[in-house]
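RECORD TYPE: inverse folding
INPUT: structure tokens
STRUCTURE:
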């Protein structure tokens, strides 16, 4: 096995992982555990970076137990991009040691696969990988139309791989229900294929019958209309969800979560932590800049969902929605949500009325 270097990175975690796994299987079959080694590389601090890179270097300089060839996978590296954990001197030194090995050449018959959430293209590590190996980037488009088209194309490819036929309109309907996340698309395709059994064609009724959006997505359209300050759409979506007997408490929690997220984004915009940028393909994008260390730590460790992660298009949408409100308006919205929540559980006002009045109060005419 010739010495090879592969760097696979991007925000589409499923596709990054799938590509890296396929490369590893090509280098050393999954059944040949003696010729492959996987090192988890989700580092929380500089000490962990040093330890993980050290393990990688040691693995690369050790032959397989019953074979001279070996494939090493540094999996899910979080310290090759611009995150806070990558900026300490000790982390840079550790990555520098790995970079030096790549430049000088891996030991004979050793291969390295690196999968990462991101990689700084300006870094010496990236340039070394480009010079001596292969780079695979999975960066979603910034334009909404392209994001949806890519998701539809990906879903269509999964149906084809499963040996079933699905027309373009059916695939578009499928994606509209399950969303843009690659891993969820794969899961729902598998479920749908199992549902139709021996039948070779997916019908619209099959999509309606078996696929379902996540609980978060059930109220997404409502929260989205609130974020856009579109009262007419918000009321229409609310009435449809209530007709579907969606719980009032679940809907109000969805709105509360959106307002909390927009408050965070509004603060980031105010302090220039989040700025307008140009994304892939020339479209608009929202880009997180370097944060104060304490804020970076809070987002990395204390927040359930780090707002810097996730799909770039969703990040852009949240930034655009936050820009429609002032900080004071978002705080007023938060207070209105809390009061409405109290009314739902302790007043005699009809719940449907409470929800409608909340929307009017939050996103009605600013006057």
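DESIGNED SEQUENCE:
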């Amino acid at each position: 096995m010739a010495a090879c270097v592969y760097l696979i990175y991007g925000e589409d975690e499923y596709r990054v992982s799938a590509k890296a796994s396929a490369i590893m299987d090509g280098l050393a079959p999954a059944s040949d555990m003696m010729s492959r080694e996987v090192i988890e590389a989700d580092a929380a601090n500089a000490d962990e970076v040093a330890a993980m890179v050290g393990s990688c270097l040691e693995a690369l300089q050790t032959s397989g137990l019953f074979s001279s060839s070996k494939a090493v996978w540094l999996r899910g590296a979080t310290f090759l991009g611009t995150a806070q954990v990558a900026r300490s001197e000790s982390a840079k030194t550790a990555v520098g040691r790995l970079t030096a090995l790549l430049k000088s050449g891996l030991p004979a018959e050793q291969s390295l696969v690196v999968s990462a959430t991101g990689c700084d293209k300006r870094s010496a590590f990236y340039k070394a990988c480009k010079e001596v190996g292969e780079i695979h980037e999975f960066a979603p488009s910034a334009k909404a139309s392209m994001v949806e088209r890519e998701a539809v194309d990906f879903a269509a490819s999964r149906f084809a791989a499963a040996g079933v036929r699905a027309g373009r309109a059916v695939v578009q309907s499928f994606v509209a229900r399950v969303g843009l996340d690659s891993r969820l698309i794969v899961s729902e395709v598998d479920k749908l294929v199992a549902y139709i059994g021996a039948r070779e064609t997916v019908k619209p009724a099959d999509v309606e019958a078996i696929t379902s959006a996540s609980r978060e997505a059930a109220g997404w359209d409502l929260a989205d209309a609130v974020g856009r300050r579109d009262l007419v759409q918000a009321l229409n979506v609310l009435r449809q969800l209530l007709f579907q007997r969606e719980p009032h408490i679940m809907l109000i929690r969805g709105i509360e979560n959106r307002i909390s997220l927009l408050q965070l984004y509004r603060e980031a915009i105010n302090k220039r932590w989040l700025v307008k940028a140009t994304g892939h393909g020339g479209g608009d994008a929202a880009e997180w800049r370097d944060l104060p260390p304490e804020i970076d730590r809070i987002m990395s460790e204390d927040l359930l969902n780090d707002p810097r992660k996730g799909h770039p298009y969703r990040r852009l949408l949240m930034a655009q929605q936050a820009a429609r409100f002032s900080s004071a308006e978002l705080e007023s919205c938060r207070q209105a949500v809390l009061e409405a929540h109290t009314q739902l559980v302790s007043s005699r006002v009809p719940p449907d009325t409470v929800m409608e009045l909340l929307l009017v109060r939050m996103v009605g005419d600013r006057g």
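NOTES: The longest strand covers residues 70-77.
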